Every structure is written in C-alpha cells, then in structure tokens.
Amino acid sequence: MAGDWGSPGELLERAIRALGENGITVTARSRLWRSEAWPDPGAGEYRNAVVLVETQLTPASLLIRLHAIEDGFGRKRGERNAPRTLDLDLIAYGRTVSAEPPILPHPRAAERRFVMGPLAELMPDWTDPVSGETSAALAARAPVGKDASPLVRP
Length: 154
What we know:
Elements: H1 8-21, E1 25-29, E2 33-36, E3 45-48, E4 51-54, H2 59-72, H3 113-122, H4 135-141, E5 149-150
Helix pairs in contact: 3-4
C-alpha cells in the first residue's frame, strides 16, 4: 500500500530520508528486500529494509518519533498485522532488554526472515540479547516470510 508516495520501494526510500529529517542519523542500511505480504499473501508484495541509526533519543522517544513518521506517510493504526502504508519497527536498542514498552528486542523480529535477513546483511554476527543467537542463524530458520529475498538494487 504505497498510497501517494510512489512504489513500495520509493515509499521506503522516502521514509529512510525522513529519519534524518527527524534527528535520527542513519549510519548503515541494508538493501531492499521483497516478500509476500504477511499474514495475507494476497495483499501484494512488501518491501523491507533494516537501517542502523544513531540517536540521543530514549527507546520510548525513538518509537514515538517512528510512529510520527509513519503517520506522516498515511499510516492508520487499526487491526494488528493489517495492510498499512508504512511500518517502522524498533528492532533493538543496543543490548537493551526490556519487558516494558517498547519491548526490546522486538518480540517477534527473530521469527521473521524479512527482518533478520536484512539485519544479517548488515550485521551477520549481531546476537539477540535474549536468545544469544546471531541474526544470520535466526534468518536461516525464521518461520515467517521464508520467501523474503534481497533485491539486486536498493
């Protein structure tokens, strides 16, 4: 669901630029990855990427800022896992582990190849602070989004 912002890839590129415009410094980024929509493959393909950032924001403030960027791109919150224009998730914040919102690391990221694949591209040896497993190992066996694969060009 790209809305008025072009293709899903163009929307994601604009969202990545919006991070910098909102005081969040992008230090590295993965290629764009494609995957069938999840949980409803009939909703079209998704585009995903992982970016590494530097910020002085706390995890809670960072998530608020991410939600504001989503809102700027027409995100409407409703049913869980429903199609949406943009979904910016906070996957991890250093080695922080938190059971309080925002829950860190993201509680379902390790199950999703469309998250762990791009993360492993950037940081294959990153270890989940809860399981101790690397992003590469998690990507290899992630049960959700098994079709996820990198696009040749971002």
